[in-house]
Amino acid sequence: MFSLNKKTITKKEQAVLDYMNRIYKKLEERDPHETEFLQAAKMLFNSLIPVFVKNSTYMEHNILERIIEPERIIMFRVPWVDDDNNMRVNRGYRVQFNSAIGPYKGGIRFHPSVNLSIMKFLGLTQIFKNSLTGQPIGGGKGGADFDPKGKSDQEIMRFCQSYMTELVNHIGPDTDIPAGDIGVGKREIGYMFGQYKRLQGAYHAGVLTGKALNYGGSRGRTEATGYGTIYFVDEMLKDNNLSFKNATLITSGSGNVAIYAMEKAIKLGAKVVACSDSSGYVYDPNGLSLQTIKRLKLTESARISEYVNTHPHAEYFDDGSKIWSVPCDIALPCATQNEIDEDSAKSLIQNGVRVVAEGANMPCTSEAIDLFIENNILFGPAQAVNAGGVAASALEMAQNSSRLAWSAEEVDVQLQVIMKRIYRRCTKAAQTYKQPKNLVVGSNIAGFTKVADTMIDLGNI
Ligand code: NDP
Ligand code: 2IT
Question: What is the pTM assigned to this prediction?
């Protein structure tokens, strides 16, 4: 299963491969249905082979088997009443994966596809993303298989309150700090914060991030994941004597991450020619109007198909997955996991893509990533590219602890510093391990070592 692409394998290397194969086999046997989690674990293990070969202490401390097991998983019933007075039930989750370097930190996702496998893959990758930021935050993730689409504001509120009624027992500003993700934005965070405050009878501003400014939110958090994505890609481009100027760009999704990635890319001179939602994509070779996309998606909760009503030159295609056939210089998958498979990757490469960077979490399959790297496409992995969101969340926590509110400029400067630092860390680790072009390996190694070293310092807990 795990192997090294060379003829002679040393004893030490064989021992590491045997160890990894044994741990992975155990995972597969124990939870064979957790396909996304197994996929994320496999990608992680692959990247870590050279670290385990170089540093035998990790194997001596059985770090891999320990790190792959969440510290705690909470699964619970979320009962709520819809507008027609029906009693409804969803399943809620919080995976508290790793708290070695700080309290659990990670978003909450409301989407009908949510299951334990998706929660675990998101929680696992969050550990290394959070470590990469250099901030003191551990990894966690939560969510529910609740579908916010078509729900009234009252239904959303009742659901958020019910979800928090259970979650309140497990979170806190020094234990676990959730934030948003797919289907969870400022409105949902507000309802959850209100319920948390009521149940606690105390004002713990730092228990959730992504809050509105009036009650402890940070300037710049809404934009941070998208802006951070572009700051990271800017570093990749500069390192290769390229720039956003006149580059054509496409993003999948038209939610929080996609919209602010488009906004910053346009500011830096790029032309956005396509974006999508879960129903389809819009394409205009002359460039899309971000103003219209923002109105449709942020204000009206409309479908992206409605874009062509006011922009008849644009075209709408009712299969969102085909967006990867649009010719572009830069492709930013910003919707969901596994949206770029081998065929989509081939299509992007054939059409001349130069850069692919993951705004979403695990949007590319490992086959797609291998193709990008083999074909010298500049590839930015999620745990590095989209880390700006959680980094700004940690800045929000810092502001909450000090009871201060920083200016938008202060937050943005810090975000830029953090994204540049992440880029340097990834490239340095990739170079150290003699795979200078492979930021997947670089980011996993750089994120992993801090957590693993700390786990050793803290003992077998
Ligand atoms: P939003 O809910 O704001 O937007 C999600 C977008 O992706 C929407 O356009 C949605 O379309 C589309 N989408 C969602 N699920 C699917 C699906 N199964 N198939 C096709 N399209 C889909 O979420 P975010 O922008 O916050 O999150 C997007 C990605 O970025 C996720 O992978 C998330 O984990 C990741 N991320 C988010 C961060 C954040 O701070 N928000 C931070 C780091 C990563 P539709 O409107 O039709 O549902
Ligand atoms: O995937 C992610 O990094 C997020 N959804 C943001 C997490 C956070 O705590 O801000």
Answer: 0.98
